[in-house]
Specification:
This protein has 16 helices and 24 strands. It has about 500 residues and is α/β, with parallel strands linked by helices.
Amino acid sequence: MGNLYQLLQSRFDAERPFTYDAKHQLIASYGDLDDASAQYANLFLSLGLVAGDRVAVQIEKSTENLFLYFGCLRAGVVFLPLNTAYQKDEIAYFLNDAEPKICIVEPDKLATYQQLTETLVFTLDRHGEGTAPDNRSTMSKQHSIATTDPEDTAVIVYTSGTTGAPKGAMITHGNLIDNGSVLQTAWEFQRSDTMLHSLPIFHVHGLFLGINLPVLSGCPIILLEKFDADLVLKLLPTATVFMGVPTYYTRLLEADINQMHCQSIRLFTSGSAPLLSQTFNLFSERTKHTIVERYGMTETGMNTSNPLHGPAKAGTVGPPLPGTQCQILDDHGDPAATDETGQLLVRGKNVFKGYWRKPAKTQEDFTDTGFFKTGDLASIDEDGYITIVGRSKDLIITGGLNVYPKEIELKIDKLPGVIESAVIGTTDKDFGEAVTAIIIAEPTANLSEQMIIEQLKGSIANFKVPKAVHFLEQLPRNTMGKVQKNVLRETFMKELS
């Protein structure tokens, strides 16, 4: 079975609920999904689109958005989701690079797109209204699912571009089929589940996990426009599965989540950014639930996961998922020893086929044996559990010695009065880079730079001890909760210059 939609369609019942709104009112059934996605597929065909053509979408989260996504899958055209926060210059880059055949955008971005492209542009707002649904409603609900090869591109998702121009990761039907099937088994998704969905859907986390997995299981989705801690607490008793990023769980703890809220939940997952051990432990203490932390990325989908049953180790992302091979190599390119930090490589059917129109970059990021170089630094313990230490680009080299920020952050986060920290390298004329810590402190804590430095001395090697400590009210994060260390570096580099 080469087309993802064909597999999904075989799993759902037309009469069963597909999406509910925040008031738990039915929005659409699986029959509605099948009809509307067929109409979108027919709309694309009527406009002359053929397999492989790109459909760019920059729209808010809605059930109609999902109809559009599944319409692209069944038509064999490529779904190209864009972060709703992107502005004119960024949009211009994506349009030039991807060359979509049509665009579907929020009404307030229509004028911008019309200035930037001669491509046909439809509108779709957060309420599911616009010229896109108006046009698809005129189409037939009968459509034969396009025949696709597992290697055919289903979705192009652009990476963040923190180290250069954004790159379009070509994710295939086969990648999504494999990763979805593996996770459905690992996390025991059933038709009886209900997903409480508060993630954005322009990202692999919210779309491929948060949507593909429940549809693959034929279960309903409570579709929230965005994360709201109080609303999530109210709706948790109506759901069995909740997926989040670490900041979601800290917000839920601040909102006084407890065991009563979670009586019907069987699975909490976390990803897209490291989950602090203190968050993991406090959540478990409050709710009697273990957060299943996993590791994935745009280019690979999910690679590892703590087990649903069995020991979940705080601070780790678990062992590799079935079918995924992980290697950790030292500085010499040899397998790293147990608990030794090295470069993480992955291989499997979940790994993307390459970057859009960037063959040289694709070749550079794959080994001759087919392993993808993740760019992440990691270690593996004696039980096979992997810990993500940081990004290789975040590695600090001070006086010729390697410093892994995560090691320092874990030490700082355990200090009294510290909520969270981020460690970066700043330019130093003597050492090349200086270890610099940025700390979020508890409001009542009376912390100082010298206090932090003194407490770290003796617990870590002197070259790892921060040369400078700064305090902020919050860390800059992207929409998926990842700390933007590039922003921190830019901020504190300017202060030093």
